[in-house]
Amino acid sequence: MNTENMSYEQAIERLNRIVTDLEKGNLPLSDSLTLFEEGTALMKRCSELLDQAEQKVVMLKKGADGAPVELPFEEKA
Hints:
By secondary structure, the protein is an alpha+beta fold. The chain has two helices and two strands. Helix content is 58%, strand content 13%.
């Protein structure tokens, strides 16, 4: 399955279905490996989308003149 055009929500939904199928433990090994590979690609896609979203997050703060100033998102330790 092509993950490149999936939204975060679509990728998470598909990943949840894969996990459910794998947890049942009734799939042949080859099918399990295929699903595992797809799940890995989906996790990568979700991570990329979260990174992109994090980069867009900004905090608005009042500047000296009272106008909003955009500050980059700061990750808390």
